Amino acid sequence: MRILSAIAVVAMLATPAYAQISTPHINLLADGPTKTPDELEQDAIRDKAYKESLRKIPNAKTSSDPWGTVRSEPPKAATPAKPKTKTGSAQQ
Known about the structure:
Elements: H1 2-22, H2 37-56
């Protein structure tokens, strides 16, 4: 009984491998219809209109604060650095 179950397991494992080898290699992408010159022209017009519409969109300056929408108060502006004065014997 063990021998029969072992043979069945081997046969079940070998079936997918055999199916991959025995099928003919077919390229389905080459069989697709080609575009007519009118369709190519319409695609070119559509692409040109798309690129022109992208140029019309202004560049939005986004905030660099990822937590800006979470805070209840607006972020504080950076305070300007105070100029440092030298302390020494030369100044009086």
